[in-house]
Predict the structure.
Amino acid sequence: MTSSENKTTQTLAQLGISSAEQITPLFAEIQAEFDADASKEFIEVLWKEFRDQWLGRKSGILSRITDNWLKPASPELKRSVGAGLNQLRAHVEAKIEERRLSIEANEEQWTRAHDHFDLSLPGVTRPVGSHHLIRQVFQEIEDIFVSIGFSVVEGPEIETPYYNFEALNIPEFHPVRDDMDTFYIELPKGAPSPLLLRTHTSPMQIRTMEKRQPPVRVIVPGKVYRRDNPDATHSFAFHQVEGLAVDTDITFCDFTGTIEYFVKQFFGPGVKTRFRPSYFPFTEPSVEFDVTCVFCGGSGVSAGGGTCSKCKGAGWIELFGAGMVDPAVYGFVGYDAKKVSGFAFGIGIDRLAMLKYGIDDIQVFFQSDVRFLRQFP
Ligand code: PHE
């Protein structure tokens, strides 16, 4: 019990106070104790306790002063006790209210600091990357072919010679293998078959036809590998999209129409196509598709007046190889060559991307230089 509490449980007589002069110091003493208590650090609960200790109706110090000092006071003391009490009450009430306000303000600050995030603060920005240009071109090509009924399949980059060559009608000593002089994998002795990095996406023609019956309409985006010396247009790894359509009634017109549709979708309606006879062991007849040069518009003359450097004045750019599927290939996958027909093509993606986006060195696709990559967000 504090001394104020202690004193206020007794009457003035019990405290030995009989003259009015003693009243003022008595109240001053009580107020000093109150002031000392009131200046302590409070949190809300403690403040309530403190308030009740002083202002509580039944047993608060001020009520006790009324009951124990004022009421039983002799007529000579009553005035000064009444005045002292009024003055003390005004002081106590004002101070307690003041403390309440400051506790509320503090508490608010506290919760603001701890419970609330400032949503207006800038967050941590993580740079968002983008697809590699090659991936973007794959996507463009896939979208075009998917829109005309093709589906997308993918296959292994490590192949057996059977899928990469033999089943595509390229027997072991066929001279076209020279062009595709390849990367063979070193295998332990006794391995069932040699393995090599595929030199084109055409093995997926075979793998697809082995699994599915006609009608077949697929495209195959992927990486391929050849033992080329690196220069502005050659790399040991590059990208192709293979296409294959086989059904009972596919004609050469379906073939050229499909290719033309694709080229116009990809380069724009102004581009013309032409095909020239070519040779691939797995297509017959085989063709090479050309498009009018996208740089000089097919004129062969550059904007500055000289010979167009991209098509070397020809007005045409060689785009990709294709043809009607050679009936011999159907023999490898168990299709009846008398009943089915189809076409296949192999688009070189790096070349296509270089033409469309005016890139003059294939190596930039493999160097991962962000100054290049950022140009194609
Ligand atoms: N696979 C051939 C190449 O890479 C391209 C091709 C595909 C040709 C399909 C005809 C049919 O050169």
Notes: The mean pLDDT is 90. The pocket of phenylalanine is lined by residues 200, 202, 242, 280, 283, 321-323, 344-346 (CB under 6 Å).
